[in-house]
């Protein structure tokens, strides 16, 4: 008789996320790489320079793109069934993964909103792909400062949680060798 453990099963077959979920996952990742690279690279240029402003325009355009993609992703996620959790994983691992995914949704939705609020309360328009987006908010310096501070603290959490999430995915792939990445590729 041929015995197949759940782990062996997971080696041979991994149900995938839908094409829409996979595409949105990697587009958001690409957007985050661009947003973070642009804002970190801005310090190369002196304050008040056009290049520095261009870096912020790239940051803000990428950030708003992330917001739109995340809203779309949320819609797709609730409108179709998710693949079952990876076969053979203990329950705590599924729970930890779900909790992490929830935190990532909250972060990637909250970050662009906070960024937009920080800019709008400062009285600035938001550059989005060459257009100027004006939010109907009155200037409020203290609110702008607060939103900016939360946005910057949030950025640290983005680094930590995305780092842990990517490390977990790579650990599954290369240490547990359960082809988890295939679910998202
Ligand atoms: C998921 C999307 C976003 C991520 C991951 C993100 C991340 C970051 C990071 C890492 C920083 C630098 C923090 C620091 O230097 O301490 C930053 C700063 C900033 N971000 Fe974002 N951001 C996002 C979206 C946005 C959006 C949509 C806007 C505005 C429309 C925005 C406006 C700003 C501003 C004004 C700063 C401060 C820049 C400065 O101090 O010169 N961000 N963001
Ligand atoms: C901005 C960075 C990232 C964010 C915000 C993010 C977010 C998420 C979320 C929320 C999920 C759950 C599925 C969903 O509801 O959409 C997920 C799944 C997944 N992510 Fe990411 N991710 C990021 C980067 C990465 C990277 C860099 C890797 C690989 C090294 C990765 C690998 C995976 C895999 C394999 C899954 C499927 C996990 C499963 O089957 O349960 N992600 N990601």
TrEMBL record:
Topology of this chain in the membrane: Multi-pass membrane protein
Pfam families named in the record: Ni_hydr_CYTB
Cofactor: heme b
Record keywords, A-Z: Cell membrane, Electron transport, Heme, Iron, Membrane, Metal-binding, Transmembrane, Transmembrane helix, Transport
Alphabetized InterPro entries for the sequence: Cyt_b561_bac/Ni-Hgenase (IPR011577), Cytochrome_b561_oxidase (IPR052168), Di-haem_cyt_TM (IPR016174)
Keyword Glycoprotein: no
Subcellular location: Cell membrane
Family according to the record: Belongs to the cytochrome b561 family.
Name by which UniProt lists this protein: Cytochrome b561
Phylogenetic classification of the source organism: Bacteria, Pseudomonadati, Pseudomonadota, Betaproteobacteria, Burkholderiales
């Amino acid at each position: 008789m041929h015995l197949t453990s759940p782990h062996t099963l997971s080696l041979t077959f991994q149900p995938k996320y839908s094409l829409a979920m996979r595409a949105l996952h990697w587009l958001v990742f690409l957007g985050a790489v661009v947003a973070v690279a642009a804002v970190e690279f801005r310090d190369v240029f002196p304050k008040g320079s056009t290049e520095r402003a261009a870096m912020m325009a790239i940051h803000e355009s990428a950030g708003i793109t992330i917001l739109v993609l995340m809203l779309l992703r949320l819609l797709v996620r609730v409108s179709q069934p998710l693949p079952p959790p990876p076969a053979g994983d203990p329950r705590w691992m599924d729970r930890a993964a779900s909790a992490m995914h929830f935190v990532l949704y909250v972060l990637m939705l909250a970050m662009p909103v906070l960024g937009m609020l920080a800019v709008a309360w400062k009285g600035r328009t938001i550059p989005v792909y060459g257009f100027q987006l004006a939010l109907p908010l009155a200037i409020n310096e203290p609110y702008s400062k607060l939103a900016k501070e939360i946005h910057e603290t949030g950025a640290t959490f983005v680094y930590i949680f995305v780092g842990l999430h990517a490390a977990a995915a790579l650990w599954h792939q290369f240490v547990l060798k359960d082809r988890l990445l295939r679910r998202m590729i």
